[in-house]
Each structure stands twice: as structure tokens, then as C-alpha cells.
Amino acid sequence: MFYTDQQKYWIWLSSIKGLGSGSFYQLLNEYGEPAYVWEQLILAKKLLTPAVYRHLQQARNQDYLDELFGLMEETETAALTQLDDDYPDRLRAIPDAPPTLFVRGVRAALNPERALAIVGSRKITVDGARFTADIAERLSAAGVTVVSGLALGADRRAHEGCLNGASPTVAVLASGPEIIYPRENEDIAARILDEGGALVSEYRPGVKPATHHFPARNRIISGLADGVLMTEGTARSGAMITMNYARLQNRPRFAVPGSVYAAASQGPNQLLTEGASACLGEKQVLDYFG
User: Fold this and answer.
1) Which of 164, 165, 215, 242 registers the highest number of CB atoms within 10 A of its CB?
2) How do 115-119 and 227-230 pair as beta strands?
3) How far is CA 189 from CA 28, 195, 223, 225, in A?
4) Is 234 domain-assigned?
5) How confident is the model at residue 220 (pLDDT cuts 50, 70, 90)?
6) For the whole prediction, is pTM greater than 0.85?
7) Residue 163 sits in a domain of what CATH number?
8) Which of 30, 55, 74 is the last residue of a domain?
9) CA nearest 113: which of 134, 89, 133, 93?
10) Is the dihedral of CA 255, 259, 264, 269 positive or negative?
11) Statement to judge: residues 153 and 205 lie in one domain
């Protein structure tokens, strides 16, 4: 894929280890363009932690660029920057949108007419798994793209259900877009790519999953969608982080009610007390969006 010099510097800067979106935009405000960060690196020292500045220094060479763009080509990964017209409109609107998305698959899948994120517990119950897959399939048949995080449990069932419908599904990863974690979901990742969907990450190819990557990627899951549904999960579930991002991003929230005695329903029941819409099936979601 062809990139302009401006795009290349942008992609380079957004690929630096430890340089989050906040620091990226801070550098951009200071320098004006990523190319000037490359040219006048010493000025960035006052804006970054010593560790991140060291990573920036180590990446300021042609070998790093050759490796980065070579790995992107090898893994069939496209970089989608905020300079590009086809950067997802929904995601662009959130305060801490990733400067660059590294995408495998169909980039247009990130800009569907309608998208819903579905999240829940990794340790999903039998009924939770059934409901998650069923509603994802029915929404997909109605033309809704399902977004999730390619984890075990609810995420996997959401992607599977969408694939059984008529719409593509989008998986947001906490690693480079070619590193599937957990490996048990490699089959689903392959189906997503084969059937017109996309694997997307703010991390460049080659980056392995890390604990702190998962909460950060949850803002992208909600940011790519028009609304977010939680099917199951405890009150301390990682899915609740996504639901909190949805609240901060002014996304409508949906939750599946359950028994007050069931740990798996703690999260959704709590969301309902906070004003989330009850979801008993696809009708509530489709009616909400007209």
C-alpha cells in the first residue's frame, strides 16, 4: 500500500512503544507535524517520560522504518490514520481516538451504516452464550455490524453469531492485528477476514498482548459502535470498563436483565439501575435506532 511521507511519519510516531494517544497529540500540538518530531527529537524530551523518550530515540532510524513497513506488508496490515478520509467517523469523534488504526481485512467494515458492540463475560453461562449468539445473528441479518474484542466467552459468541448473519463483524485486538489472543480464536479470526470483516488494533504488527492494553482497547470497541450491549458479567467484569467508556462517549447502553442471585447478571443489572435500556432481544435495539 502506498503512503505519503506525511502518513509515514504519522504512522512511525504512533507506533512508538509506550506513546499513547494523549502523548501523541501533545507532541502534535507542540511540533505541528510528526515529521518535525523526527527532525528535532531533542525537543520532545521535556514532554515524555524517560522510558518513552528512549523508545522514541531507538525508533528514529531507517532500520526501524524498514522493519515496521515490511512487517505491515508481510502481515497484510493497512495503517489507517486520522489524516485519512476513511478513518472511522464514529471513532474520530471520541476524545482519545487512536492516531492510527492498524487494520487487517476490509477497512470499509469499520464505517458501516449501523454498528453495535456486544460485550460480556469470558466465563459465559450456557444461556448467556445462546442469547449472545442469537441476538448477534439476528442483528447481523438486519444489517447491523457487530463489534467485539475477540476474547473467549461472550466476544467469541458475538462474532460467531454475526458471521452466521448477513453482516461483517469487527474484532478489536489488544495486540498487533496479526497476533490472535487467545490462540483458540484463530479460527474465528480467519472467518472474520474471509467473510468481509476486519481485525483492528491501535498497536502496530509485532506487538504482543499486555495487561494494560485490554482496558485501553475497550474504548475503541465502544467508539466504533452506535451503542453497546452487555449480555453477562459480574460487577467487576472487564466488560463494565467498556460500558463505562460507552457512557463517557454518549453511546446508548443496553443490558440483559437476569436473576439478582446470579453473579453473571450483576453487571447488567447494575447498568439497568443506572439507566441502561433493558434488552430482551434484537427488537429493543432495532426499535431504539429506528
Assistant:
1) 242
2) parallel
3) 34, 10, 21, 19
4) yes
5) very high
6) yes
7) 3.40.50.450
8) 74
9) 89
10) positive
11) yes
